[in-house]
Automatic annotation (TrEMBL):
PANTHER family, A to Z: BETA-GLUCOSIDASE
InterPro entries the record matches: Cellulose_deg_GH3, Fn3-like, Glyco_hydro_3_C_sf, Ig-like_fold
Name of this chain's protein: beta-glucosidase
Ranges in a coiled coil: none
Amino acid sequence: MENYTMEGRTYRYYGQEAPLYPFGYGLSYTTFRYRDLVLSPPVLPVCANLSVSVVLENTGLWDSEEVVQLYLRWEQSSVPVPRWQLVAFRRVAVLAGREAKLSFQVLAEQRAVWAQDWRLEPGTFTLFAGGQQPGQKTRAPSEVLSARFRVTGTARPLGRC
């Protein structure tokens, strides 16, 4: 085998074609609402981690669990990258009519790209938070919030952070 590219071989690289059963696919017995997605800091150095918080509210009549998923998208990269990449997820039980504020850390190494070695690059990124992948079509309504952040500095090997 000489061609190790993932393009067209895994759903993360299919372009605009969505997978039949993406990560987090399923139904819920209640409804959830996401709000107050906060990225801190919104501009960070190339080797820094990103803090993320989001509020999840159970707007339905039943106590239930939701799998909160965070996805990262590179807006520009020097090498091919996935459309988006899962960087965190957590199963959360929320009582009916209640809400939970969740905090996550997106590590610098989760933004690394492979270019003969793992490298961190500056640029603009979009972070998605919700109960499904961005753009996913489901029978049960679920929303996905998004926010952008910017990484400054010069590209460097991951091992030099």
